[in-house]
Design goal:
Strand content: under 5%
Number of helices: 19
Shape: globular
CATH class of the largest domain: Mainly Alpha
Distance between the termini: 34 Å
Number of domains: 2
CATH topology of the largest domain: Growth Hormone, Chain: A
Largest sheet: none
Order of helices and strands: HHHHHHHHHHHHHHHHHHH
Helix content: over 70%
Structural class: mainly alpha
Number of strands: 0
Radius of gyration: 22 Å
Length: 472
């Protein structure tokens, strides 16, 4: 595999991909380990569970607010120097999190860690599409998807063990040596920034940056506040997000150096891919929300075996990523993306009618089908988006791609959770009967099925338009 970057070779592409793989693993690993440690953190800092949840929320909000911004900064200031800075900031935030003397300090340190995580997530795919030949981009995207899934899978298991052996502080310190290894590999192998980027003469869109961050934070808060109950605070946050988003579009139309150029905002094919990515991510989040209730209340599994069954999905994603990428390189992005959506539709259709008597095997089969479909879609969609844009905008486009996924996950927690609660027809899902839980799951996946079908039609229509433009 040869180096194809126009920025000049810095090291082996294989070692560069190894460093990028670690950079993709760490942000998801840092999310899932913190979730596991929340009960211990409430004891350590004598805090309520609602207060401790900000350890996770502050990290996710920071990533959501900054991921597009740092992607654009990479295009303007240089991706290599920004990636190295991001890994360093992530390591520093991890260390500060591990020694934080109070919950407030821990939350602040997690914001710092989130800045580094946003940088790594935004720039990893941009680098991957630059250091491998175009014919191998699918394989690279599949590998990065695998590493993200591995981080999600390892987090609960390793985080639980580390917390049990050495305490909850240690789960943050685990990231420090990983970041140091990543920094060493990246410094030796990532291609140099070209001279035209190394001299940052372009002005940065501060107004657009502030408005986009405000819109994204407000939207994320609207989807997460209230613990599933949509109240006045959620409504106010949603209105704020809407106003800030519209103001952002107006500012971008007039800005001499916009954060997101209008050619991207008006690119229907790109918007279709990003919208589908968001919807698919929201549907996948439904499996994580409903799975524990179904396995414990309907199937009757204890916490430990239910956790093992829940790990099957991320494990299947980790195993499917690389083969999915290779399939993209052989068959092309459109066919593989539609095949992945078809698998997702089949899985959601099955879960919308599954009887309880099918047991664990009846639940695992559609989950694995959906997870493989998700891996196929992600590899194909990421490849299509990253190879379709201009090289000078790869950081920005990579940030937008990751943002659409994060927004889908955040929206899925709120929207799919609300549909599930409505479907149970219970005052409290925790006390709902097995029959109510089953009804709630069926209702949720009926909605999920039609969302996937709608996304498939949008993707198919966009693909036909692109094909017609190329042949016309």
């Amino acid at each position: 595999m040869g180096q194809v970057s126009e920025h000049g070779p810095q090291g082996s592409p294989r070692w560069a991909l190894a460093g990028l793989s670690l950079a993709m693993l760490m942000p998801s690993f840092a999310t899932s380990t913190a979730n596991v440690a929340l009960p211990e953190l409430t004891k350590l800092y004598a805090a309520s569970f609602q207060a401790a949840q900000w350890v996770v929320l502050s990290y996710l909000l920071t990533i959501t607010a900054l991921i597009v911004v740092v992607g654009r900064l990479g295009d303007v200031l240089g991706r290599r120097r920004l990636m190295l800075a991001g890994v360093t900031v992530f390591a520093g935030g991890s260390m500060l999190s591990g020694v934080a003397p109070s919950l407030e300090m821990l939350i602040s340190a997690r914001v710092v860690q989130g800045v580094g995580a946003a940088t790594m997530m935004a720039l990893t795919m941009a680098f991957a599409s630059a250091v491998v030949p175009r014919s191998r981009t699918g394989s690279a995207m599949g590998l990065l998807g695998t590493m993200s899934a591995v981080g999600t899978t390892l987090g609960p298991a390793l985080g639980g063990l580390v917390t049990a052996w050495t305490g909850s502080r240690a789960i943050f310190m685990v990231n420090v040596p990983l970041a140091m290894v990543t920094l060493l590999i990246a410094a030796r192998t990532l291609p140099h920034d070209p001279p035209r980027v190394a001299a940052p003469s372009t002005r940065f869109d501060l107004a657009g940056t502030a408005l986009l961050a405000a819109a994204l934070i407000a939207f994320a808060l609207a989807m997460t506040l209230g613990r599933g109950q949509f109240g006045s605070l959620n409504f106010a946050a949603l209105v704020t997000a809407f106003v800030a988003c519209n103001a952002f579009i107006v500012v971008e139309a007039r800005a001499p150096f916009p954060l997101v150029p209008l050619n991207l905002i008006r690119n229907r094919a790109l918007l279709a891919s990003l919208s589908t990515n968001m919807i698919v991510s929201a549907v996948m989040m439904a499996t994580l929300i409903i799975g524990p209730f179904y396995l414990s209340k309907v199937i009757g599994l204890a916490a430990a075996p239910a956790g093992l069954v829940m790990a099957v999905g991320p494990l299947a994603a980790a195993m499917a990523g690389v083969p999915a990428g290779r399939l993209v390189d052989r068959l092309g992005t459109e066919r593989v993306a539609l095949g992945g959506l078809a698998a997702l539709a089949a899985g959601t259709a099955y879960l919308s009618v599954i009887p309880a008597v099918f047991g664990v095997a009846g639940y695992v089969a559609p989950i694995v089908t959906m997870t493989i479909g998700y891996g196929l879609f992600q590899a194909a969609n990421s490849t299509k988006i990253m190879t379709g844009g201009r090289p000078a905008e790869r950081g920005l486009i990579s940030g937008m791609l990751n943002l659409s996924r994060n927004l889908g996950l955040i929206t899925g927690v709120s929207t799919m959770g609300a549909i599930f609660a409505w479907g149970t027809a219970a005052n409290d899902v925790v006390t709902a009967s097995p029959e109510m839980i089953l009804n709630g799951m069926h209702s949720t996946f009926v909605v999920a099925f039609f969302l996937i079908i709608g996304s498939s039609l949008v993707s198919f229509h966009a693909a036909r338009n692109i094909s017609a433009e190329r042949t016309g």
